Amino acid sequence: MSASAKPYGILARYDTAADIFEAALKVRDAGYRKWDVYTPFPIHGMDEAMGLEKSKVGYFTFVGGFTGFTTGMTMIWYMNKFDYGLVVGGKPLFTPLFAFPVSYELTILLSAFATLGGMLLLNRLPKLYNPLFSSEIFKRASNDRFFICIEAADPKYAEARALLEASGASAIELVED
Amino acid sequence: MNFSPLFKRIFALLACVGLVSFGALRLAAADHAEPAAAAAHAAAPAHEAAHADHGDAGHDAHAAGGHAHKPAIEVTFVSQFLYSYLTAYMFCLSIVVGAMFLVILHHLFDASWSVPIRRVNEQIACLMPVMGLLCLPIIILAPQIYPWMNIDPATDHALDVKKVLFNRTSFTVLLVVIFGLWSFMALNFRRWSVAQDKDGAAKWTSKARFQAAWGIFAFAITLTLVVFLLMKSLMHQFFSTMYGVYYFAGSVWTTLATVYGIVFWLKSRELKGVIYTHTMHFIGTLFFAFTVFYAYIHFSQYFLIWNAAIPEETFWYVKREVGSWWQVGLLILFGHFFVPFLILLRIDTKLNPLVMGPMILWAWLMHYTDMTFNVMPVLYPEGLHVTLLDPICWVALSAVLALAFWKNFKSAAPFPLKDPRLKEALTHHEVPAPGAAAAHH
């Protein structure tokens, strides 16, 4: 940690889920935008406590599902009626009825793909490195401690240390980029 | 009764398997149309004979549907009343059996979120004895409703092969026994739940869970039987092993709409403080899930019949494409599935009373339309025919049940006061809105 290194953010450690929940409410209400919470397990209500908006993944899902459905319909129409008309079981060359099961399965398949892809995209994953990995105390984030990190890029970063100190943190550390 | 934890776990596992197979087995069974095909070959001549016996020329009907009979039930005031009554009855029965299913489901999954709304479900399910009483007119006047009751099985092959189930004795005995069993189950659930209000003992939960474990099997089989007897037998030639689960899917859908409405209404009254946003969200999510499940089941029934193209099965839908029944079918396709699907897709609409209020009314109307689509073409083959008796029966039966529900509901605590899982349901974090954090502790 050289003194010339640019700060990435300020990291606060909390010992209980209740502590970090209360702290998250304070950070949210102080108007911070570039910050995150790191916990070993999901905490009920944390999304609201952090003031997170509704996830946008649903739009990816919808587009994926819609694409899947239209792909199924047009694929069967193209193959069975347009490109090479084939009578099967005395049924019409094309009807949405027999194209439905395939379209339905494609809807689910592409929805799932789009959901996974959208989630990775919105989270900017996969990401091989995060400056927080250099912090020693942060290692327990995957075990039994709870962390809030306010990034230096946040416009209100100057007041961040004071806020976190008053929020019941058990340790505070500067993390460098 | 004392059972070891392992035994209980096995039962819970079996129950879950039962729940899944309730849908899956039916679907698989409907796939194997061979026995039906065999019956179809044998049935054709017998039908011709039946036509002749009844002096039914049926020329036009033959051209339209292949299998069409003239309405075997004359349109009179009595038959009109009975059909309106049956439609309204099937609608109301949906909500009562649906509520019992929700109670069973709660215990099977050992859920905590639904503890605060369980008493509402228990009380709706306890309308079962009332439904049993209201079924008496149908049982007594059955020959004026069900055409097969007036046909000699010796002249009708389709009836002959099903006479084990479709005879007056089986019809009466099964309905009486099943309504007895359902009432027994529903009253047990409530009795144990209310007993727990006093002492908070976990044994009441265990008893309910044990009943839910065997009950889910009993429920699946008996509900199918009741729907076969009361509704499917209106056209006794019809084959569809998934008819029971089709009624079930629409029923639970309607029940969830109703429960959403009741809970929303009570959350600022009797249920004040125990209903959270996420409770409404979960009911709405289940409502959405059953919108899809109903469409899946009804499409599967239609698609398998369409694909196999066996007259003994297709006639049922062919008759429902005659005249305005075709439009009613389209209304069910779009109104029962497509529109609710798009409306309920978003989280915010599931929580918005301005959307959900009309949605609940719409769900009731759509389920009633679905029941009409199942029942009424027997009396009015030429198209939809609404008389004043339809709304009268619908409103009257609903009003009787609503009053009975309210009387039941006032007789006990509005939610399970000492359920072991209640604390879990109530300690769920309600997060203060921005700015309100200081007041929160």
Tell me about this structure.
The complex is a heterodimer of chains A (177) and B (441). Helix content of chain A is 44%, strand content 14%. With 177 residues, chain A is an alpha+beta fold. Chain A folds into two domains: 7-53 and 129-176, Alpha-Beta Plaits (2-Layer Sandwich), CATH 3.30.70; 57-122, no CATH class. Chain A has a four-stranded antiparallel sheet with strand order 2-3-1-4. Chain B is an all-alpha fold. Chain B has one domain. Chain B has 17 helices and no strands. Chain B has helices at 5-31, 34-53, 59-65, 77-108, 115-125, 128-140, 157-160, 168-199, 202-230, 243-266, 277-308, 311-319, 325-344, 347-351, 353-375, 389-410, 422-426. The A-B interface holds A 21-22, 25-26, 28-29, 44-45, 48-49, 51, 54, 58, 62, 89-91, 97-98, 100-101 and B 299, 303, 306-307, 309, 345-348, 428-432, 434-435, 437, 440.
Short synopsis of the structure:
Chain A is of the alpha+beta class.
Write the layout of secondary structure elements.
The complex is a heterodimer of chains A (177) and B (441).
Chain A: E1 7-14, H1 17-29, E2 35-38, H2 46-49, H3 57-83, H4 96-122, E3 146-151, H5 160-165, E4 171-176
Antiparallel strand pairs in A: 1-3, 1-4, 2-3
Chain B: H1 5-31, H2 34-53, H3 59-65, H4 77-108, H5 115-125, H6 128-140, H7 157-160, H8 168-199, H9 202-230, H10 243-266, H11 277-308, H12 311-319, H13 325-344, H14 347-351, H15 353-375, H16 389-410, H17 422-426
Helix pairs in contact in B: 1-9, 4-5, 4-6, 4-9, 4-10, 4-15, 4-16, 5-8, 6-8, 8-9, 9-10, 10-11, 10-15, 11-13, 13-15
Task: Name the features.
heterodimer, A: 177 residues, alpha+beta, Alpha-Beta Plaits, 2 domains, four-stranded antiparallel beta sheet, 5 helices, elongated, B: 441 residues, mainly alpha, 17 helices, disordered C terminus
Q: How much is the average pLDDT of chain A?
A: 92
Shape verdict of chain A: elongated
| CATH class categorisation of the largest domain in chain A | Alpha Beta
For the termini of chain A, the CA-CA separation is 9 Å
Major sheet description of chain B: none
* Average pLDDT number of chain B: 86
- Please give the count of helices of chain A: 5
Adjacency order of strands in the biggest sheet of chain A = 2-3-1-4
In DSSP terms, counting alpha (H) and pi (I) runs of 4 or more, how many helices of chain B?
17
- Measured as a percent range, the helix fraction of chain A is 40-55%
Overall number of structural domains of chain B: 1
According to CATH, the fold-level topology of the largest domain in chain A is: Alpha-Beta Plaits
Unreliable stretches covering 5 or more consecutive residues of chain A: none
One letter per element, helices H and strands E, the order of chain B comes to HHHHHHHHHHHHHHHHH
> In angstroms, what is the radius of gyration of chain B?
23 Å
Task: Kindly report the greatest chain-chain contact and the residue count on each side.
Answer: A-B, 21 and 18 residues
Radius of gyration of chain A: 25 Å
